Amino acid sequence: MKRVSDKSKAQGFTLIEMIAVLTIVALISGVAIPAMQRWFDSISERAQLTAVSVQFQRLSARTALLSQTLRLNRTNWKAKLADGEDVLALPDGWSLTSDKPVVFFYSGICEGGVIELLNPQKAIVKLNIAPLSCDVSILR
User: Fold this and answer.
1) Does some domain include residue 26?
2) What's the pTM value of the predicted model, to 2 decimals?
3) In a domain, 121, yes or no
4) Per the structure, how many domains does the chain have?
5) For 74-116, how does the pLDDT look when each residue is reduced to its tens digit (9 = 90+)?
6) Torsion of the alpha carbons at 35, 41, 123 and 72, rounded to the nearest 10
């Protein structure tokens, strides 16, 4: 009678063990991948919003350098200033929806107010433009 050694029994994985591991990997992927996508979208939106905020701060300097007063609202944000550049170059999918204008004076100061933007997900994002200093803060 031939004896089977313990070494020969432990040479691989059973089909059930492999299916169990693949099931666990699939479950983890099903949870992790959507969470990572939401995280990436959130970071991407924050980066775009930061770029938009910088454009508003730059706008006060541009109007001062050009000695031009601008009443910014949803109808003229795509217009060109005297330097030939668009008033705002918003990222793809973004638009300005504010009815009440924010005035950027030729002296480099601004009247202040709240600017409403529509992001690509069709959510409204509000930016507060501080009077005089034109500092931008995100209200959400």
Assistant:
1) no
2) 0.71
3) yes
4) 1
5) 999 999 999 999 999 999 999 999 889 999 999 989 998 999 9
6) 160
Task: Check: CB of residue 72 under 8 Å from CB of residue 101.
Answer: yes
Q: Which two tokens stand for residue 59?
A: 């706008």
Determine the structural domain holding residue 105 and report its residue range: 51-138
Q: What is the amino acid identity at position 112?
A: G
Handedness of CA 38, 44, 47, 49 (dihedral sign): negative
**Residue 104 CB neighbours (<10 A):** 26
pLDDT tens string 114-136: 999 998 889 999 999 999 998 99
d(CA 71, CA 67): 14
Give alpha helix (H) positions in 12-74: 15-65
Distance CA 11, CA 55 (A): 64
Element (H, E) at 6: helix 6-9
Phi-psi region of 136 (alpha: psi -120 to 50; beta: other; left: phi over 0): beta
3-state SS assignment for residue 58: helix
